From TrEMBL:
Catalytic activity line of the entry: 5,6-dihydrouridine(16) in tRNA + NADP(+) = uridine(16) in tRNA + NADPH + H(+); 5,6-dihydrouridine(17) in tRNA + NADP(+) = uridine(17) in tRNA + NADPH + H(+); 5,6-dihydrouridine(16) in tRNA + NAD(+) = uridine(16) in tRNA + NADH + H(+); 5,6-dihydrouridine(17) in tRNA + NAD(+) = uridine(17) in tRNA + NADH + H(+)
The protein's name in its UniProt record: tRNA-dihydrouridine(16/17) synthase [NAD(P)(+)]-like
Residue segments, region Disordered: 413-439, 485-537
Localisation per UniProt entry: Cytoplasm; Nucleus
Ranges where the DUS-like FMN-binding domain occurs: 64-354
CDD domains named among the record's database cross-references: DUS_like_FMN
UniProt organism field: Takifugu flavidus
GO terms of molecular function: flavin adenine dinucleotide binding; tRNA dihydrouridine synthase activity
Annotated Basic residues bias: 423-433
Gene3D superfamilies: Aldolase class I
Similarity comment: family membership: Belongs to the Dus family. Dus1 subfamily.
Role played: Catalyzes the synthesis of dihydrouridine, a modified base found in the D-loop of most tRNAs. Specifically modifies U16 and U17 in cytoplasmic tRNAs. Affects the level of some mature tRNA and thereby the total cellular translation.
EC number: 1.3.1.88
Length: 537
């Protein structure tokens, strides 16, 4: 006979066995033919440098760039069908990824697909600990983690990430080194160049020394964006490739397959990444320029096959694909912007296809209608026009293109821009009396900590986010922001004291009963006798 302790130990061992068996079964169901990243990371050591590029990334040469709200699962699968060998996820915000389980599920966990490999997940971050926490949550669903050091947009400047960290080498070195130590997958980086060639090389070497296993170099500075985009410097990319001993991907100036081959030959990199060129022509890596409707229909088919996909993502992709055609058929452009279902988007795309086929049947020569190298219904890159030089009186009679594009002044800068942006011009057309003068805008006092507008009546003279952190830390109230940490703490304290007082009173009651409580008055014998005589016989 087994003792009770032996039976309990046997029961525990059985439970462990069934738990492990169930976990293995789930992994087999999830990855039926190939071992997933979680299994691979446990079974083999982390690969580095060229070994990682050759074995894990399978010597990928044609790469789809990470694009916010654009490189989602459906688009990645479409690109892979047409020659892409490696894809990146959209950029994820590390802090939100750690904090919000729904954000993780909707953007990464729900997009697990066997066909979507190899895959690199990109994060933006400015805190080493938060970056590593986010990467640990994502490493089992991808082949590497990428740190975004190349985003030049204003939102990256406000959030203090992307290309606006490229001067903080000590912070970047710490982030990359910590990730390289803690993660079971390699860490990669995507950067922009400095104007100085030598500084760019030292920057790349610093990241390599910190533990970066693959470097993507966008050959533009952080100032080259929008109308100032200009031409990417392959000279900088070539210098980085010759200076480091890890694989390098090039990014910039890729509009056709011939550009890609020229970049490989001129720079000597291991792979070439495409962003806008891929958005306007998903078959770029095949060297084809198919009709737009062919790519649009195939993309919609993939979206239906791999739901869910945000409608805003689908709409944005169709706008990119049909860009040149929508310049002609403006009525369908408005329809494409207004429809709110996937079937509605597919219907507008079908109408655009019919109109293009009617033009082809009529033999319309679309080449003469603009500067496009192909008819507007053919997938082809979009080239930004150079900004026009405004005349002092406001009439654009002189339309000479400038060799060096002058960037329009930012809204938050001190100087006032001479011309309005396209969005503001549209607003003025709807409301001619609207004033866009920066001098007449209300000036907000900035928060002392983050630079956002502070609350007018804030106790700490901070914005709501900073005020909430400080009020929580100091257990204080801020009526202006509706924060009641001190009030709630006092209320909880009062309730606790009242509860303890009640417990004391409840504890003294049984003692009163046990000790007899207060003495009862003695009965009067004369009163009892009088009551008995009054009773009926």
């Amino acid at each position: 006979m087994k003792s009770k302790e032996e039976e309990e130990e046997e029961d525990v061992s059985y439970r462990r066995y069934f738990a492990v068996t169930h976990a293995r079964k789930v992994l087999r169901q999830r990855f039926p033919t190939k071992p997933g990243a979680l299994q691979r990371n446990q079974l083999m050591a982390k690969l580095q440098g060229f070994e990682f590029w050759k074995k894990t990334l399978k010597e990928a040469c044609f790469v789809v760039a990470p694009m916010v709200d654009q490189s989602e699962l459906a688009w990645r699968l479409l690109s892979r069908r047409h020659g892409a060998q490696l894809c990146y996820t959209p950029m994820f915000h590390a802090q939100v990824f750690v904090r919000d389980a729904n954000y993780r599920r909707d953007n990464l966990y729900n997009e697990v697909c066997e066909e979507d490999r190899p895959l690199i997940t990109q994060f933006c971050a400015n805190d080493p600990e938060v970056f590593v926490q986010a990467a640990l949550l994502a490493q089992d669903y991808c082949d590497a983690i990428d740190l975004n050091l190349g985003c030049p947009q204003m939102i990256a400047k406000r959030g203090h990430y992307g290309a606006f960290l490229q001067d903080e080498w000590e912070l970047l070195e710490k982030m990359v080194r910590l990730a390289n130590e803690k993660l079971s997958v390699p860490i990669t980086c995507k950067i922009r160049v400095f104007k100085e060639l030598e500084k760019t090389v030292r920057y790349a070497r610093m990241l390599e020394k910190a533990g970066c296993q693959l470097l993507t170099v966008h050959g533009r500075t952080k100032e080259q964006k929008g109308a100032m985009t200009g031409i990417a410097s392959w000279e900088h990319i070539k210098a980085v490739r010759q200076a480091v001993n890890i694989p390098v991907f090039a990014n910039g100036n890729i509009q056709h397959l011939s550009d890609l081959k020229s970049c490989l030959q001129e720079t000597g990199v291991q792979g070439v990444m495409s962003a806008e060129g891929n958005l306007h022509n998903p078959a770029l890596f095949e060297g084809r320029s198919p009709p737009v409707w062919e790519m649009a229909e195939e993309y919609l088919e993939v979206v239906r096959k791999y739901p869910p996909c945000s409608l805003s993502y689908v709409r944005a992709h169709l706008f990119k694909l049909w860009h040149h055609t929508l310049q002609i058929h403006q009525d369908l452009r408005e329809d494409l912007a207004k429809v709110k279902t996937l079937d509605g988007l597919a219907d507008v795309s079908k109408q655009l296809k019919q109109r293009c086929q009617e033009e082809i049947a009529r033999g319309t020569d679309a080449k003469k209608s603009g500067d496009l190298p192909f008819p507007h219904w053919i997938c082809q890159p979009y080239i930004r026009p150079a900004p026009k030089e405004p005349v002092a009186n406001g009439n654009q009679t002189s339309e000479v293109k400038k060799t060096v594009c002058q960037k329009r002044a930012l809204e938050d800068s001190d100087g006032a821009g001479e011309t309005l942006s396209k969005n503001k011009q549209k607003k003025r057309s709807r409301n001619p009396k609207k004033n866009f003068s920066p001098e007449q805008k209300p000036k907000y006092i900035k928060c002392e900590q983050c630079g956002n507008p502070k609350g007018n009546k804030c106790v700490f003279s901070l914005c709501r986010g900073c005020c909430k952190k400080k009020a929580f830390k100091e257990v204080a109230d801020c009526p202006s922001h509706g924060l009641r940490f001190k009030t709630k703490a006092d209320k909880r304290k009062a309730e606790e004291e009242e509860r303890k007082e009640n417990e004391k009173l409840d504890g003294s009651a049984p003692e009163m009963k046990k000790g007899g409580g207060s003495p009862q008055p003695l009965a009067d014998p004369h009163a009892e006798l009088q009551q008995q005589t009054q009773l009926p016989v």
